[in-house]
Amino acid sequence: MARELTQREILTELEPTAEAALNRHLTVVRDWHPHDYVPWDAGRNFAMLGGTDWEPHQSTLSEVAKAALITNLLTEDNLPSYHREIAESFSRDGAWGSWVGRWTAEEMRHSTVIRDYLVVTRGVDPVALERARMVHMTDGFAPPLAQLDSAGEVGFLYSVAYVSFQELATRISHRNTAVVCDDPVADRMLQRIALDENLHMLFYRTVCGAALDLVPDQAMAAIATIVENFRMPGAGMPNFRRNGVLMAKHGVYDLRQHLEEVLSPVMRQWNVFGRTDFGPRGEQARERLAAFLDRLEREQIPRFEEQRDRALARDRARAERAR
């Protein structure tokens, strides 16, 4: 049986793949400027500069759109924590370091443009938004399964597996938030952000796929554990549960989308269930993953959808009574 590789060895072996993926990214990515996506002529001063402070009636966004935009923005705000985790799990040298720097710079645009849009259009309470940002960024980002990195050997595989799914999940959340905003300006902005997230996913998915070829058992164990314990990076933010329920109830991001639009496409790309190169550890992890996905599809998703449909029916009935 082949010995397991250390994190340093894996990074060294995969650096040519990372360099090729970075170069491909740089050939297709299109630079854009946050200020171009903000309707500045809709802005006006707040009270400190002689204007008026925010009032709820000033927002044209629905409660679902507000919840989704706040959740997406606060998630993007935690970039310093994500940068630290990626830099520590990957490397600051060579192609790895170049990617981490480029990825960070591109991601920074997302929080900039969403916040400018929300403040200029008075879409949400800017004071409450800033207080939530302070709380969320002060708490930082604790990567899922951080305890598995205690030996310093498995961090990269767990990190690259996580971001392969997470970047795609974030893309879908931004894309569907554009729909519920019902605003052509927000639609254009969020579609632009979603395109970035998709390109980032392609880099990570490519590298993780190469890791599966290089160390199939180690990578499969990481993938299975990440899928079983997946949670979005904003899970610790204020009001995350409330906003997440609203988003799931109204189709911004729910369990079926998570399975059918995130987990399944990525695993198909890696040919997880068609591979023949696993040893006992990899086979065991794949079997565990298959059982988890089966429970998700047969039990958890139908249960969620039944609860969602009942909740939506109650909402419609209340709306009818209020007329």
Automatic annotation (TrEMBL):
Name of the protein this chain belongs to: Acyl-ACP desaturase
UniProt cross-references to Gene3D superfamilies, sorted A to Z: Ribonucleotide Reductase, subunit A (1.10.620.20)
GO terms for cellular component: cytosol
Coiled-coil residues: none
Family statement drawn from the similarity comment of this UniProt entry: Belongs to the fatty acid desaturase type 2 family.
Lineage: Bacteria, Bacillati, Actinomycetota, Actinomycetes, Mycobacteriales
Keyword Oxidoreductase: yes
Bound cofactor: record note: Binds 2 iron ions per subunit.
Residues where Fe cation 2 binds: E107, E167, E197, H200
Entry cofactors: Fe(2+); Fe cation
Binding site for Fe cation 1: E76, E107, H110, E197
UniProt KW keywords: Fatty acid biosynthesis, Fatty acid metabolism, Iron, Lipid biosynthesis, Lipid metabolism, Metal-binding, Oxidoreductase
One function term, GO molecular function aspect: stearoyl-[ACP] desaturase activity
PANTHER family, per the entry: ACYL- ACYL-CARRIER-PROTEIN DESATURASE-RELATED (PTHR31155), STEAROYL-[ACYL-CARRIER-PROTEIN] 9-DESATURASE 7, CHLOROPLASTIC (PTHR31155:SF9)
Annotated InterPro entries: Fatty_acid_desaturase-2, Ferritin-like_SF, RNR-like
Protein's UniProt keywords contain Iron: yes
